[in-house]
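Could you show me just one protein sequence together with its fold in token form as a worked example?
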Amino acid sequence: MAFYRKNIGGLQQTVRIALGVAVAAAAFVYLAGATAWLVALGGVVFALTGLVGYCPMCAMAGIGRGGAS
């Protein structure tokens, strides 16, 4: 039983995962210190929303796969 309804589609999930991993990796290549960790954390969160298929910000904005709420 799921506690949420998926609100992003398959293509958007794939793009989120790819960009999230790329941002997290690039953070450690191009940045240093706490800034690298914060940017990498943002990338990981972005990738996780793709893996799960649910974006809380999209839900708050009323954006979803089922059309306008």
Q: What stands out?
A: Residues 10-61 form one domain. The chain has a mean pLDDT of 88. The chain has one domain: 10-61. Helices lie at 10-30, 33-52, 56-61.
